[in-house]
């Protein structure tokens, strides 16, 4: 298994590195460029016109590499489905933004409904065919807890929250990819420890993100778009669910959590106070930008937090 993991990372990395520079001109030719909100940070206006939908490169690398090993490691199929399913939702959202030339893409209700459908199919498969119990592991506790009838509602909340947290995190060059590659490394280590087939899937994501980061760091030559961010959120959430460690997401995906909570608090505070803001701008990374932090400094800071929390989570297994 360890040898296969090395091969998977290398293959996925090579596909991502070779494919991305080939697809960037294609995205530019068909004007698949980033639309920047006027009300966003002024420093982001210079990003207008940068190719987006780079998540296609990530998904292609993951899909091709996983397909090569799927027969040998069939246990990763549910996570592969969920990753591609959420990636498809993101693709539709990005496509509408580009074709309609508007930043909204799918309406919030359309996006949520599609996310619920993908989540429901994944959990149905999990419940019907994967023989998973309703017990989950708890950080720093030897014994897990049994959720019983609350198991499926809890997982719905975890998956949808993680996916949208990942989506909000994708707002700076290299932020989403940098944070998520650390999470995928953590998930690979855990899957290896459990001797779980998912270590192949997590390795494929790790390799593809390492390759994509070469073109996504500041100043980014391509953005992943919702195609990538929703797919990665689906990957992280479904992998954690199958490994029985959804509670660990509060640690390893703490940046996702802070980003989505900052948006909820900002909207709630704005409505309660009649127009006042809790943060200078939400999601959270924009608040740091408005406070004068450079983009690279925010990305490094958030990545360091993720790395430290992943180490702490390993201690808590």
Please give a structural write-up.
This protein is mainly alpha-helical and 317 residues long. It has one domain (2-248). Helices cover 68% and strands 1% of the residues. The chain contains twelve helices and two strands. The chain has a two-stranded antiparallel ribbon. Helix 3 runs antiparallel to helix 8 (225-242).
Topology:
Blueprint: H1 2-29, H2 55-69, H3 77-100, H4 108-129, E1 135-136, E2 145-146, H5 151-169, H6 175-193, H7 198-216, H8 225-242, H9 249-252, H10 254-272, H11 284-290, H12 295-315
Helix pairs in contact: 1-2, 1-7, 2-3, 2-7, 2-8, 3-4, 3-8, 4-5, 5-8, 5-10, 6-7, 6-8, 6-12
Task: Tell me briefly what this model is.
By secondary structure, the protein is mainly α. It is 68% helix and 1% strand.
Key terms:
two-stranded antiparallel ribbon; single chain; 12 helices
Broad shape: globular
Overall mean pLDDT stands at 91
| Sequence of secondary-structure elements | HHHHEEHHHHHHHH
Low-pLDDT stretches? none
Specify the number of helices. 12
Could you tell me the strand content as a percent range?
under 5%
The main β sheet shows up as: 2 strands, antiparallel
């Amino acid at each position: 298994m360890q040898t296969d993991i090395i091969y998977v990372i290398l293959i996925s990395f090579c596909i991502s590195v070779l494919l991305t520079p080939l697809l960037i001109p294609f995205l530019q030719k068909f004007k698949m460029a980033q639309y920047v909100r006027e009300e966003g940070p002024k420093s982001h206006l210079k990003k207008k016109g940068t190719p987006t939908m780079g998540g296609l490169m990530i998904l292609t690398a993951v899909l091709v590499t996983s397909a090569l090993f799927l027969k040998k490691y069939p246990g990763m199929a549910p996570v592969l489905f969920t990753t591609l399913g959420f990636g498809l939702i993101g693709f539709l959202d990005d496509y509408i933004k580009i074709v309609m030339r508007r930043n909204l893409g799918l309406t919030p209700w359309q996006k949520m409904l599609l996310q619920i459908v993908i989540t429901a199919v994944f959990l149905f498969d999990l419940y019907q065919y994967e023989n998973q119990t309703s017990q989950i592991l708890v950080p720093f506790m030897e014994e897990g807890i049994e959720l019983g009838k609350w198991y499926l509602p809890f997982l719905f909340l975890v998956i949808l929250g993680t996916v949208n947290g990942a989506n909000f995190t994708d707002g700076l060059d290299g932020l989403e990819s940098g944070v998520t590659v650390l999470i995928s490394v953590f998930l690979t280590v855990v899957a290896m420890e459990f001797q779980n087939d998912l270590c192949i899937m997590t390795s494929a994501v790790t390799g593809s993100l390492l390759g994509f980061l070469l073109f996504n760091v500041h100043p980014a030559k391509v953005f992943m778009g919702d195609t990538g961010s929703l797919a990665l959120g689906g990957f992280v959430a479904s992998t954690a669910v199958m490994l029985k460690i959804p509670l660990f997401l509060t640690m390893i995906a703490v940046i996702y959590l802070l980003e989505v909570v900052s948006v909820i608090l900002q909207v709630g505070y704005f409505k309660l106070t009649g127009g006042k803001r809790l943060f200078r701008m939400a999601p959270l990374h924009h608040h740091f930008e408005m406070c004068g932090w450079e983009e690279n400094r925010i990305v490094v800071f958030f990545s360091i937090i993720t790395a430290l929390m992943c180490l702490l989570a390993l201690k808590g297994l």
